[in-house]
Amino acid sequence: MTLNELVCCLQQFSKSNSSNPVINTIEMDSRQVKDGSLFICIEGYTVDGHDFAHQAIEKGAVAILAEKQLDVDVPVVYVKDTKRAMAVISNVFYDHPTTKLSLIGVTGTNGKTTTTHLIDKILMDARVKTGLIGTMYMKIANEKVEAKNTTPESISLQQSFRKMVDQGVETAIMEVSSHALHLGRVRGCDFNIAVFTNLSQDHLDYHETMDAYRHAKGLLFAQLGNTYCHKQRKIAVLNVDDPASKEYEKMTAAQIVTYGIEHECDVIAKNIKITAQGTYFEVEAFGEKQSVQLKMIGKFSVYNALAAMATCLVDGLPLDDIIKSLQTVDGVSGRFELVDEGQPFTVIVDYAHTPDSLENVLLTVREFVQGEVYVVVGCGGDRDKTKRPIMAKIASELGDHVILTSDNPRSEEPLQIIKDMEEGLTEECSHISIVDRKKAITHAVERANDNDVIVIAGKGHETYQIIGGETIFFDDRLVASEAIKERGSNEL
Ligand SMILES: CC(=O)N[C@H]1[C@@H](OP(=O)(O)OP(=O)(O)OC[C@H]2O[C@@H](n3ccc(=O)[nH]c3=O)[C@H](O)[C@@H]2O)O[C@H](CO)[C@@H](O)[C@@H]1O[C@H](C)C(=O)N[C@@H](C)C(=O)N[C@H](CCC(=O)O)C(=O)O
Ligand SMILES: Nc1ncnc2c1ncn2[C@@H]1O[C@H](COP(=O)(O)OP(=O)(O)OP(=O)(O)O)[C@@H](O)[C@H]1O
Ligand SMILES: N[C@H](CCC[C@H](N)C(=O)O)C(=O)O
Ligand SMILES: [Mg+2]
To answer: Can you state the angle between helices 387-398 and 355-368, rounded to 10 degrees?
Structure first.
């Protein structure tokens, strides 16, 4: 494709000269540039991509897209907003891949990864060829690719959709983060179904206010399109029990389908019974009643199951088949994952890194625990600081023993993060702060009695810890399992 063919889709631009090179790839990172690349300069939070234009040309870039004046020998296309232009150009370069598959987007503070995996499982069981994009990895047909962000930048996103289309993927299911919506990473994606899980506090470092955060998530429903203008139906699947759904209903022109537990809706769960073995409920979906026995535990798991059910129902699958699939799911890696070395107490590794998710997980544990609850928890550095004392408060109110520790401190001082958390501890709670996460986990494992439950929160599936500029291998599940074995051998 030539530069002119590529940029003619832009609303407004000017070109530094008339040459029209062939563009082989588009890149936003000078380090990835190859012969024939169009290099897009993005002013980031850390550095300014415009400063890498020369480096990109040295590596083979034949054209540049920029916001700021550049003195270079290759043609430069100037636009007001390179990020916006990047999304438009990526979509054109990869030939509008999302119009060639069915696209399901899931947004919300908690439950995106879980819900996308449930939808993926149900669709795969129905022999639909699927793709998946989210926190843990990207799945393109049968290939799994590591993910840096939950929702990637538009170039990588559109390229992945193109690969999916080329490999015959029929439906792509993706997590859509609030950052991605606000930064325009998903501009140009032709969503068919947009799903809302829930909204609670997170990412206030970035969005600053809950109003701004709620609005960012709403952009998914605003960009869903108009049911009446498309051949394919556009549907917003909303959680009726979350007040934000009212706003999203107003923000979208798409058809609305609702799910929930507390209020009347299209797909509702009743008579929920939670045990340590699983969760039972009765579902009434568009008037049809069925019983469901999930292996996953907790009321929040019911919400995720309902969201997946509602989505797959509107996607055309029969309720019977959907329930059969859901009942086989053991869980999602790092979400309420049990570490079982045959010990007489329970160890749960969970990705709860927000106040609401921590509360949900601990309330669920409280439903079945016979002994005491140990909570090992930290908060990420370079992230929303205001959630630190709130998470410690929740841990101390719902746990019997709290062990505050490090999550991913990133560029922050680990002890300071823990001090911020300590502010929220209730006075009467038994607690200790241990900066080293391995020692913190071991501390809990060494002290737990029969029938106690240890919840290790915050890092779930992560296999690393980011301390300063260094990323070291760290897996809560392996650390816990080693500690359990060590205790076992010491007790022999
Ligand atoms: C705040 C934020 O979103 N940051 C994202 C942003 O980084 P940045 O603005 O710091 O980029 P930068 O390093 O300043 O670089 C600016 C430009 O210069 C380019 N560059 C840079 C260096 C160089 O040598 N050459 C070069 O060309 C870069 O490629 C980039 O185009 O652009 C990067 C490239 O796309 C992202 O990976 C990065 O996400 C970082 C890793 C991040 O942590 N993001 C989080 C906050 C995030 O987006 N999270 C959400 C939601 C999480 C959830 O589910 O709760 C997500 O979707 O992941
Ligand atoms: N529907 C839900 N409501 C509240 N909490 C939930 C829900 N589903 C999962 N959780 C909790 O949130 C944690 C994260 O779940 P999950 O990874 O599915 O969410 P996510 O939205 O993908 O998170 P992220 O924003 O980090 O990508 C889980 O480990 C669990 O503790
Ligand atoms: N997507 C979330 C994940 C947080 C996971 C937690 N372990 C942390 O590092 O804070 C974020 O980037 O804010
Ligand atoms: Mg996720």
So the answer is: 10
What's the total number of domains in the chain?
Answer: 3
CA distances from 37 to 93, 157, 185, 455 (A): 12, 17, 20, 48
CB 346 within 8 A of CB 453: yes
**Alpha carbon distance 385, 172 (integer Å):** 34
Q: Tell me if 383 is assigned to a ligand binding site.
A: yes
Q: Which domain holds residue 32?
A: 3-93
The conformation of residue 461, written as its DSSP 8-state character, comes to: T
Report the pLDDT value the prediction gives residue 229, as an integer from 0 to 100: 52
Q: What is the pLDDT of residues 325-350, one digit of tens each?
A: 999 999 999 999 999 999 999 999 99
* Distance in angstroms (rounded) separating the CA atoms of residues 435 and 421: 12
Atom 11 of ligand 3, residue of closest alpha carbon: 383
Mean pLDDT, residues 257-270: 98
Tell me: do 103 and 11 sit in the same domain: no
Rg of the chain (C-alpha set)? 24
Share of the chain above pLDDT 90, in %: 90
Do 70 and 128 lie in a common domain? no
Task: Report the candidate in 431, 451, 428, 439 with the shortest Cα–Cα distance to residue 480.
Answer: 439
Helix (H, G, I), strand (E, B) or coil at 324: helix
In terms of domains, do 21 and 104 share one?
Answer: no
Residue 332 lies in a domain: no
Closest CA to 368 of 480, 244, 272, 274: 274
438 Cα: distance to centroid of ligand 3 (angstroms): 19
What 3-state DSSP class applies to 145? Answer: strand
What is the C-alpha separation between 332 and 368, in angstroms, rounded? 20
State the distance from the centre of ligand 1 to the C-alpha of 285, rounded, in angstroms.
Answer: 41
Is 112 within any annotated ligand binding site?
yes
* Shortest-distance ligand to the CA of residue 61: 1
Q: Does 251 score more than 70 pLDDT? A: yes
Q: Is residue 273 assigned to a domain?
A: yes
410 a known binding residue? Answer: yes
**Residue 234 counted as an annotated binding residue:** no
Q: Residue 108 is part of a domain; what is its CATH number?
A: 3.40.1190.10
Q: How many CB atoms lie within 10 A of CB 40?
A: 28
- What b/e string do you get for 2-11 counting C-beta neighbours within 10 Å, with b at 16 or more? ebeebbeebe
Condensed to tens digits (0 to 9), the pLDDT of residues 210-248 reads 999 999 999 999 999 765 555 578 999 999 999 999 999
Please report where in the chains the tokens 């927000």 appear, as a residue: 354
Ligand 1 pocket test, candidate residues 149, 198, 412, most atoms within 8 A of CB: 149
- Ligand 1, atom 18, lies closest to the CA of 49
